[in-house]
Amino acid sequence: MECKVSWMGPGGMSFVAQTGSGHIVAMDGAPEGGGNNLAPRPMEMVLVGTGGCTAYDVVMILKKSRADIKDCSVTLKAERASEDPKVFTKIHFHFTVTGRNLNPSAVERAVTLSHDKYCSASIMLAKTAELTHSVEIVEG
User: Quick check: pTM over 0.70?
Assistant: First the structure.
């Protein structure tokens, strides 16, 4: 895996990244850090990527078990250390999974498998952060 991150120049703290798969992602800093608030912060992108990684796993696991899943979202709430390096210290994942006749233990199992075995991002973040989760199942 490879990517290239390029500074957009002296007018601020904006960066553009090109991923190995050919996609473009913008990032920017907060105004108090010299940024122009034009795009997500790099650490927000870490959190977003982790949410995408674990949601992908949960959907894939449930689909493989033939669950009638219609929707899945995960809200991540994170805390960071107050001093540098400002690593994540706590992250709570709240999964909302919508489907017909979903088995609560199967949904919980999918979330646990993601966090313990499949989601590389959350497994890496667990080295510095306490990870917790909750699950909400919506019939639909």
Answer: yes
